[in-house]
Write a sequence for this structure.
């Protein structure tokens, strides 16, 4: 029995000609068998070099043909290239190939397309098997307890196989292991595994996603002075940033889902991980936006999902500017009515300006999201943000997001500021087409001053100190 191996570069016309000659021999001769290996042009040189080194061959072109001698206890016997294979077929089997050049080129093109498609399919299958590492800090908090099942149910990251990493400090390994067992007992199909970490050794190793939740020190009454709080945040998040810079996956995305010093935490992280683009670091503002939508919807007697394009500007943990200039409402039962896709400007629907300027803002700002029972809005906001960022849901209209400024809207570059963004195909971009009124510009300037002072106070405690 003759068993041959034919290998070649996908776009090589001589590989195409040898391939058809081999098929012809296999049909004619019952004891002739051929195994084909096709390599993408980008992989061919490396593959051929490794194959020749492992077998002690000398060959430099496509295709390469050898005869398998494994049934005799030996290595493969190199036959050579196309001409050697053609000569072998003529001498031993009386068969030759007279394929026209045009046909050779057509088949080579088809081979290349098929090879590229197979490589893409292989990459997709491999991505489904490979671990997608999601790290959650403050893993023993109520927010983390409620959030973690959503991260591995298949809706947030699609069909990726999630390896969940639970990080919390102190003597808490026993509690973390208990949480791990609960998550494993859910038997969620996308959950590849759960690992617990009670210290920063190898923190954020190969992380694809890192979610920073509020820490114990951030919740409830705090006896620390603002200065000492800022010092703690600056030093701790600088350490986190350095670990991300050293350990995280090259495609990492970081979400600061905090309600205390959210802008500052995100700013320090981005500053301390210079290996990654600043666009990989964002601070959650959607929970505030959703709260605004709820109260507007209640006022107009519509569902909150019918309120869109509300923008939250500024300091997520402090002063914000609620912008309704482009906000719209769907399915409002008023004098004007239209089909489901019909919407109206909210400022034309709510005539009560006094309510908008007093009671509305008082209610929105009086709900402290740092209280434990307010964690559910944050969790929902984290999940919806990740779904949009990873392309698992369609993002319609404007979304509010804390991002590292590049100078738009007169916000100093490097300052983390909540602005309107658009999500598309798993990426976000700042909605620079927004027009600001003089009053809005004045409010934003005051918030910039507030955040700049906060950043200046923090930068004194960085080691080495951060740039101004």
């Amino acid at each position: 029995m003759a068993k041959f191996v034919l290998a070649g570069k996908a776009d090589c016309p001589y590989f195409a000609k040898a391939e058809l000659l081999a098929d012809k021999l296999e049909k004619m001769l019952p004891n002739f068998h051929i195994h084909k290996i096709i390599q993408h042009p980008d992989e061919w040189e490396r593959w051929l070099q490794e194959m020749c080194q492992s077998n002690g061959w000398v060959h430099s072109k496509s295709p390469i043909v050898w005869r398998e001698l494994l049934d005799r206890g030996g290595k493969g016997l190199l036959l050579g290239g196309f001409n050697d294979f053609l000569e072998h077929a003529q001498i031993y089997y009386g068969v030759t190939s007279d394929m026209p050049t045009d046909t050779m080129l057509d088949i080579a093109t088809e081979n290349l397309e098929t090879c590229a498609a197979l490589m893409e399919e292989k990459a997709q299958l491999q991505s489904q098997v490979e671990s997608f590492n999601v790290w959650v800090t403050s893993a023993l908090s109520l927010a983390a307890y409620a959030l973690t099942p959503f991260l591995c149910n298949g809706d947030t990251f699609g069909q990726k196989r999630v390896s969940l990493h639970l990080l919390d400090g102190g003597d808490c390994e026993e509690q973390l292991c208990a949480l791990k067992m609960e998550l494993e007992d859910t038997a969620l199909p996308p959950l590849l595994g759960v690992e617990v970490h009670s210290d920063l050794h190898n923190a954020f190793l190969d992380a694809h996603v890192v979610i920073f939740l509020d820490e114990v020190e951030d919740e409830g009454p705090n006896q620390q002075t603002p200065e000492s709080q800022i010092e703690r945040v600056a030093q701790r998040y600088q350490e986190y940033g350095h670990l991300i810079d050293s350990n995280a996956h090259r495609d990492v995305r970081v979400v600061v889902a905090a309600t205390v010093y959210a802008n500052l935490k995100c700013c320090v992280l981005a500053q301390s991980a210079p290996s990654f683009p600043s666009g990989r670091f964002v601070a959650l503002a959607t929970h505030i936006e959703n709260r605004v939508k709820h109260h507007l919807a209640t006022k107009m007697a519509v569902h909150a999902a019918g309120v869109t394009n509300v923008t939250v500007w500024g300091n997520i943990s402090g002063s914000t500017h609620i912008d309704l200039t482009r906000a719209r409402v769907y399915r409002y039962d008023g004098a004007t009515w239209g089909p489901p896709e019909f919407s109206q400007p909210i400022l034309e629907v709510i005539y009560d300006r006094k309510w908008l300027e007093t009671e509305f803002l008082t209610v929105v700002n009086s709900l402290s999201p740092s209280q434990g029972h307010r964690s559910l809005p944050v969790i929902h906001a984290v999940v919806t943000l990740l779904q949009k960022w990873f392309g698992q849901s369609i993002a319609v209209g404007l979304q509010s997001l804390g991002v590292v400024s590049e100078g738009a809207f007169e916000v100093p570059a490097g300052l983390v500021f909540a602005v309107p963004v658009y999500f598309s195909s798993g990426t976000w971009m700042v909605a620079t087409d927004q027009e600001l009124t003089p009053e809005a510009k004045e409010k934003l300037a005051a918030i910039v001053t507030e955040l700049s002072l906060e950043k200046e106070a923090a930068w004194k405690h960085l080691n080495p100190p951060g740039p101004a």
